[in-house]
Write a structure and sequence with these properties.
By secondary structure, the protein is α+β, with helices and mostly antiparallel strands. It contains 11 helices and 23 strands. Strands 5, 6, 7, 8, 9, 10, 11, 14 and 17 form a 9-stranded antiparallel beta sheet that branches. The longest helix has 20 residues.
């Protein structure tokens, strides 16, 4: 399964806008992605004369992500949860389209975009990074922003999660960490890489389960890793222990700038691509960025809340909360206290969550008026609020402390099962 297969479906549904004129990779291309943000897929046919089409907004609306995963909204949570628990190993092939064109070890032919004026340089924003545990041999796939430093080097923003653990182990052993970056993959593969299964679970196997066993992998040429055979672009490289560069500031999912930090450097060994490759670019802070970050965490919240109440209808990380900091959860309440238990579980399922509202089954989590009405009619501040002071929150919350400490608030906006009036 490839990105091209998915885009054909989008074109058939009239969801693609083509821009044919020459576009600058600095700011102008990003402005066009922003113009259509949250709407159609955008295809920029001529960016800087590089000969590659830049594609954005692929996962810019929730319904397209559902379609890519082959689910409806009602089945979304259960299908993704099952894929995370029971992934399927993909087949490995030798003849891979991603190897059709060899570009040597230089990044200069790629139409990498500079999105905003304060950006320190051009960024690859839709790169799935694949690495391997140097002892146990399992692979990990995750999405990271990559600042292009020059023709053969990139700085990678690495938060303390799974890839960071693999990198730290390599540093301790004083060996290179081999990595492969793929750009232009089927949205289900990109979505799986944004999920957070336990370390040791290969996200590419999760993607294969979501795609019904139709994902094909191939071996890289310069590094010992498996990557999607039908990807548009492949960058092979190594991270050498101790090599860092200043990365950032960068506009994050909240629409505010993240700080600059010293981050590891990837040294490029080889670049290859399909003929007529499509270069996927995700607008930082845009709908596609927020949904790819937020929707997998909705599944985590759904799983956690499902452990404490019998039925969870829907979870939504809201647009106003940057699809990251605020959630609304609809449950079928059976006992008094279910709403409070659900709120506490939601914070467990998504530790970056700051505020959560628990509503009844019949409330539309996508309708802020219905949610506000539930708060207005059902909530008494001295009875229905949970406040957790001094909790670890999100580093992306500009109002939290420098250590990420915040106050979390849960709101039980479910109806009382019995009237409290005499």
């Amino acid at each position: 399964m490839s990105l091209r297969d998915f885009l054909k479906d989008c074109e058939a549904k009239g969801e693609v806008v083509n821009v044919s004129g020459k576009v600058s990779s600095r700011l102008e291309a990003a402005s066009l992605l922003a113009k259509y943000d949250g709407g159609p897929v955008v295809m920029l046919q001529d960016v800087e004369g590089k000969g590659l089409t830049v594609v954005g907004g692929i996962c810019g609306i929730r319904e397209r992500i559902y379609r890519a995963l082959g689910v409806r909204e009602a089945s979304y949570f259960r299908v993704v949860s099952e894929a995370l628990r029971n992934p399927i190993e993909p087949v490995v092939v030798d003849d891979a389209p991603v190897n059709e064109v060899d570009l040597g070890s230089s990044l200069e032919k790629l139409p990498v975009l500079t999105y905003y004026e304060k950006d320190p340089g051009p960024y690859i924003t839709a790169g799935m990074v694949v690495a391997k545990d140097i002892d146990e041999g399992f692979q990990n796939a995750s999405v990271h922003r990559l600042l292009v430093l020059d023709r053969e080097r990139m700085a990678i923003r690495m938060v303390p999660r799974h890839l960071y653990a693999l990198y730290k182990k390599a540093v301790e052993r004083e060996v290179d960490l081999q990595v492969a970056i793929v750009v232009g993959i089927h949205p289900a593969v990109l979505f799986a890489a944004c999920c957070n299964p336990p370390l040791g679970v290969d996200e590419l196997w999760v993607a294969n389960r979501l795609l019904g066993g139709r994902l094909r992998l191939t071996r890289c040429n310069k590094v010992d890793l498996l990557v999607p055979a039908d990807a548009e672009l492949l960058i092979e490289g190594v991270i050498k222990p101790g090599e860092t560069a200043l990365e950032g500031p960068f506009l994050d999912v909240t629409g505010t700038y993240d700080e600059a930090r010293q981050q590891p450097i990837i040294r490029v060994l080889r670049v290859s691509m399909r003929r007529g490759a499509l270069y996927h670019a995700i607008l930082p802070g845009g709908c596609e960025h927020r949904l790819l970050m937020g929707m997998p965490r909705e599944v985590s919240i759904w799983e956690a809340v499902s452990n404490v109440v019998p039925e969870v209808k829907a979870v939504r990380l809201t647009p106003g909360g940057c699809n990251w900091l605020h959630a609304v959860v609809a449950i079928r309440k059976q006992w008094e206290g279910d709403g409070k238990n659900a709120a506490l579980a939601a914070f467990t399922g998504h530790p970056s969550l700051k505020h959560v509202v628990i509503v009844d089954w019949d409330v539309n989590v996508d309708d802020p008026i219905e949610v506000e009405r539930a708060i207005a009619l059902n909530v008494q501040g001295d009875e229905d609020l949970i406040m957790i002071k001094g909790a670890r929150g999100s580093s992306l919350d500009p109002s939290s402390s420098k250590q990420g400490i915040t106050c979390k608030v849960g709101v039980d906006a479910t109806k009382k099962l019995r009237s409290t009036k005499s």
